Amino acid sequence: MSDFDATITIRRASLDDLPAIIGMLADDPIGATREIVSTPPDDAYLRAFADIDGDPFNELVVAEDAGAVVGCLQLTLIPGMARTGMPRAQIEAVRVALSHRDRGLGRHLFRWAIERARERGAGLVQLTTDKARPDAHRFYRSLGFAASHEGMKLMLRED
Length: 159
What we know:
It is a single chain. By secondary structure, this protein is α+β, with helices and mostly antiparallel strands. The chain has one domain (3-142): 3-Layer(aba) Sandwich (Aminopeptidase). It contains five helices and five strands; from the N terminus they run E-H-H-E-E-H-E-H-E-H. Strands 1-2-3-4-5 form a five-stranded mixed sheet, with helices on both faces. Helix 4 (105-119) links the parallel strand 4 and strand 5 (124-127). The longest helix has 15 residues, at 105-119.
């Protein structure tokens, strides 16, 4: 059990949370090269938020501590034909604010996401992680994730 079990609230993100979410996405060497931190948030983020928020298969959630947004993740339920029609859940965009790193919040967020995926009928949880994030790889393995597949991406636009 982490220190956060009693103090952190995990809830669906609201539009008001968007600046904090974008800030966390940009707060690492990889994110800093591809995110746009601005006030107000760039229209692309507003459109993405509306799409995610309006999709019953997607949940963008934040972790809140004493009124401050200190973590986030996106959980997507993916219906599928493989494995006898088993739905799967995809976890994306997991971030923890610098002030709350290395204190168990990431583990707390993942426990919440895995349980939520189970509640929604997912038979497995998957994620992708950049090859340049060895610390994240160790963390995901510590949660029971296995590097069972080789992921590939085809960029359709350069941003």
